[in-house]
Amino acid sequence: GSLSFVMYFSKFIIHQSVLYVILFFKKLVKWCKGKYVVSPGTSFTLEPKDTELKTAWAQVTDEIKNTSWKAMYAKNNAEFDQIVKKMEKNAKAYGYDACIEWSKSQAERRHQLEQELKATK
Question: What is the number of alpha carbons within 13 Å of residue 3 lying toward its C-beta?
Answer without folding.
Answer: 0
